[in-house]
Amino acid sequence: MLRKMLIVAAVATVAGTTACGASSTASGGQTLRVGITDSPIDSLNPFVAQYVLPLSVMRNVYPYLVGYKGEHVGPDFASSWETSKDGTTMTFHLHPGAKWSDGQPLTSADAVWTIQTTLKFAKSSTAGLAFLLNGVTSASAPDDHTLVIKLAAPLSTAIAQFAMLPILPQHVYASAAAGDGSGLRRFANSAPVVSGGPFALSEYRKDEFLLLKRNANYYGQRPKVDAVGIRLYSSGDAMVSALRNNEIDQAKVVPATVVDKLKGDGKLRVSKVPSADVFVLGFNSNSAKPEHRELLDPRVRKAIASAINRPQLTATATVGTGTVIDTLLPPSIGGGWTATGVKLPAFDADGANRQLDALGFKRGADGVRIASGHPMSYKVRFVAGERERQFESIRNDLGRIGVKLEAAPSDASSFVSAVHGPNDKYLDTDLFLNNWMSLYDPTLQLSVLSCGQLGNLNDAGYCNKTYDGLLQRQATELDPAKRKAIVDQMQQILNDDLPWIPLYARAILDAHASTWDGFVTSPYTTDFLSTNAFAGVQRSG
Amino acid sequence: MNRGLDLVLRRTAVALITIFCAISLNFLLFRVVPGDAVSNLARVPNSTVAQQQALRHEFGLDRSIGVQYVAYLRELAHGNLGRSFANGQPVSKNLGEALGNTLPMVLLGTVVAILAGIATGVLGAVRRGTRTDRALTVSSLTVYALPAQWVGLLLLFLLGGVFPSGGRVDEFLIEPSPWQHTVDVLWHMTLPSLVVGLTLFGQYALLTRTAMLETLAEDYVLTARAKGLSTLRIVRHHALRNAMLPISTLIALSLGSVVGGVVLIETVFSWPGIGRAIYSAVTSRDYPMLQGAFLVLTVVVVVCNYVSDLIYLRLDPRITV
Predict the structure, then answer these.
(1) Which region is the signal sequence (chain B) (predicted)?
(2) Chain B residues touching residue A122 (CB < 8 angstroms)
(3) What is the pLDDT of residue B45?
């Protein structure tokens, strides 16, 4: 009590000397004030940005050929499209007469330039976007509002890929693409950004603030708000405090610990949707790993999977907001991609103990089992500050079956180096905790565990040629039912081999003032696959 | 040679050598840590080993550490801190913005802490052994012991509705006049500055009290009292002047470290300053940003020490070597 009083007294003194009057917040008009926590902006350059928030900003600022409505792709800058009979030519009919925010014409020439330039420097400066043009050979424009894209072969994922490819203003970027194209990587794309989407990015201050103003030249349905200001918070508590004090109208990614409190506030509305962000316990699956080779045995992995009480882990780690999952494709992405027949073994510690007994791994004096002459004691690598609760829960569970875990937290860069290391050979790590966000189209998520991603995205060192073959086949299978059957089969393979034990999908928790409505949720912290998030938002009272 | 000038030259040489050593250590330190900028930047779905190599080449990371070091020193000598790996902008621009945000907030807090701390310390020493002294000492010790981020969160909780919960300005203030803008900035600065002030206040108050007690016990103070001088005059002209020696050292030292030490306060209040810039540079292994940021911090610390040495020289004529 003394401490509190001292502080309050001191505050009163200093406040008296510095504060000359409260700031008058301009909360009138139709400017939506959004707060978001821990969402870094690595870059606003579309060739460089990888984080979700800058991708969402670009989704609202640049035109895209097609966009998602829910989990399905629909028209955007292209009002319609058709595919040739042989499946290798796609023709898009674009909005005629469209303009960029600076008044310059927005035509098929911009789309052609974006695609050709990305293809041209795909191995260097435009690599960040090039995966969206997998299978594309060229683009051309017979007239201002028609775009023709040629594919090497029929491609079931083509439309999903184009839904993520921004169309860039040629007149702004062309000079950066001169020579070897390295200028494209260095392009700052400073605000105000020449925009073609529903909003124009008019202001950006690093680690501070983004201002999206309605783009008067937008070809589509104009948003109801005049502007959206996004304030970047580094602490969830500060953001929640700002929402409660009417400094912002919407708080994105609210800490799970305060949700109940916010729900009790009559002036606020809280939304909770399962995210596409999947948390996994991974095994180093490189068959050449020198130590603890018992972890390569799927029976050991199954025993470990059944020893983990996933419902309890989920409740603990997400404060009761997460959803238990069984495969790497979470139900939140819709489309029926989650293989309903694929299930992880149910929680059964006794069964897991019997399984390990049967494999001959006897317990040592300290209760830790011995496998091939060494204790079943493993380091678990994870990114510090994010997964301690998961780790503790798993450590307790596995302790009951005689498997000892030791935490090996580090920062994200060191984590990636260690899990892949040394030199991307996957020799050092036994177990790790990671998370992967699935898109609506499952290809990218499925590809993480492919041989082609070894040394790149693949964190498990897992390589299965049958799986890779299926990955290729599903990408070219145009019959949706057949494609789904292949994707189901891939999930079954992963369930048999268990390079990852899927744990849970966390929830996306947003809160907004009840004076606003029209918010559309998505399984992503900020929606980077559609412009729905702010399109219909308006003041309600 | 003039002994004073000799001393200044020596101190300058020591400061320059310190900066050079710090630059070299900063360079080496971040390259020893596992993971590099490319391991973050190049992990896009279609990335190949060749692409990662190309990126390493572009950043100069494929050269030997010795060659990189020489190149770094050469660029530095030309005043070029390089470009951030993460956002491609000149490091000097990134740092300038961040430092420009941090300094006013830190300075406001520090000035308040210095004034309040010295006043409290002097009052405690003059009223030695009384209730006032005990209350002041206990409160100084309490705030000295409290972790800054905890104080920050507590203030946020208690005063969130009165003061802004975070950020540097109210971005939604439409076309503010210069006066409105200044008021807005000060208003936002209040809580973070207050936390800086509170965390520094305790040590200033305690040190001032101790230094004052020492000087108040000196013979010349007794002489001054015997001459019939007023307490105020004794404190101002005889005791405090001499007590300022250790206090000025502490102020200079803490000024240097406070700039780098505000990372937690900046995080609590979403203040876009140097602390947050360093944090994100560490996580993305942005070597040029890190080197630049730590160079700035080193220079600030060394310069503050250097200035404190010079002040010492000015305050105490007895110092000659």
Answers:
(1) none
(2) 46
(3) 65
Residues 6+ apart with CB under 8 A from A110: A63, A167, A168, A169, A170, A196
Which three-class secondary structure state does DSSP give residue A161? helix
The angle subtended at Cα B311 by Cα B308 and Cα B315, nearest 5°, is: 135
Residue A258 has pLDDT above 80, yes or no: yes
Q: How confident is the model at residue A338 (pLDDT cuts 50, 70, 90)?
A: very high
Q: Which two tokens stand for residue A458?
A: 């693949």
Q: Name the 3-class secondary structure at A192.
A: coil
Residue A346 has pLDDT above 80, yes or no: yes
The residue of chain B nearest to residue A383, with distances taken between CA atoms, is B283
Of B51 and A400, the structure prediction assigns the larger pLDDT to A400
Identify the weakest region by mean pLDDT among A46-60, A70-84, B69-83, B142-156. Answer: B69-83
SS3 string, A226-272, reads: CEEEEEEECCHHHHHHHHHCCCCCEEECCCHHHHHHHHCCCCEEEEE
Inter-chain residue contact A187 with B47, CB threshold 8 Å:
no
Residue A500 phi, psi dihedral angles, 5° rounding: -125, 145
User: Which residue in the set A128, A235, A447 is minimally distant from B166, CB to CB?
Assistant: A235
> A214, A216, A217, A172: which is closest to A44 by C-alpha?
A172
Given the DSSP bridges, would you call strands A404-410 and A377-383 parallel, antiparallel or unpaired?
parallel
Compute the CA torsion angle A448, A452, A457, A459 (nearest 10 deg). Answer: 80
pLDDT tens digit sequence for A367-400: 999 998 999 999 999 998 878 999 999 999 999 9
Cβ(A513)–Cβ(A249) below 8 Å:
yes
Helix (H, G, I), strand (E, B) or coil at B115: helix
Q: Which amino acid is at B281?
A: A
3-class secondary structure per residue, A393-449: HHHHHHHCCCCEEEEEEECHHHHHHHHHCCCCCCCCCCEEEEEEECCCCCHHHHHCC
Query: CA geometry: angle at B169 spanning B163 and B175, to 5°?
Result: 120
Neighbour count for residue A170 (Cβ, 10 Å) = 19
Distance of alpha carbon B180 from alpha carbon A168, whole angstroms: 38
> What was the pLDDT predicted at A25?
38
**Average pLDDT value for residue range A359-374:** 93
Q: Which residue do the tokens 């802490």 mark?
A: B113
* Chain A to chain B Cβ contacts (< 8 Å): 219
Tell me whether residues A237 and B156 touch, CB distance under 8 A: yes
| Alpha-carbon gap, residue B80 to B237, rounded angstroms | 48
Partners of residue A456 in chain B, C-beta under 8 Å = 43, 45, 47-48
DSSP state of B234: I
Answer yes or no: is pLDDT of A11 > 70: no
ipTM score here? 0.78
How far is residue A349's CA from residue A307's CA, in Å, rounded to a whole number? 5
Kindly tell me if the per-residue pLDDT of B280 is higher than 50: yes
Angle at A132 (CA atoms; ends A232, A102), nearest 5 degrees: 60
pLDDT at B41 over 70: no
Residues of A in contact with B283 (CB under 8 A): 411-413
Residue pair A114/A166 in contact (Cβ under 8 Å)? The answer is yes
3-state secondary structure at position A211: strand
E strand or H helix at A116, and its extent? Answer: helix A108-120
The H-assigned helical ranges of A308-421 are 310-317, 349-358, 388-399, 412-420
Token readout for B122 is 């002097």
